[in-house]
Design goal:
126 residues, mainly beta, 7-stranded mixed sheet, 11 strands
């Protein structure tokens, strides 16, 4: 089992940057595919970015391509989401998720993930 704790959210002006962190407990972090999801009020939770074991594969939603970067540091058991050129429509609660995998695929749907963090609020003002 793994526990996930997000941090780094906050209030930022449009055009600004934030870096979200997701610290994972346990000694098998490298065996998990990781994802960052977000959920705005009244909307479904959707995938923002995902990264496979050993960072072999990554995925970005079209809305964030070129602005967000997902990465992971196995030595620190942490996955990051660097968010640049933020827009008001990026405002949401951001969640980190993990799924134990044997392959190097990324996972796209919330139902594929076994473990979730508590979420961190990101608010982008115009």
């Amino acid at each position: 089992q793994v526990q996930l704790v997000e941090s780094g959210g906050g209030l930022v002006q449009a055009g600004g940057s934030l870096r979200l962190s997701c610290a994972a407990s346990g000694r098998t972090f490298s065996s998990y595919a990781m994802g960052w999801f977000r959920q705005a009020p009244g909307k479904a939770r959707g995938l923002v970015a995902a990264i496979s074991r050993s960072s072999v594969n990554t995925y970005y939603a079209d809305s964030v391509k070129g602005r967000f970067t997902i990465s992971r540091d196995s030595a620190k058991n942490t996955v990051y989401l660097q968010m640049n050129s933020l827009k008001p429509e990026d405002t949401a609660v951001y969640y980190c998720a993990a799924e134990l995998r044997e392959d190097y695929s990324v996972r796209y749907f919330p139902s594929a993930y076994d473990y979730w963090g508590q979420g961190t609020q990101v608010t982008v003002s115009s």
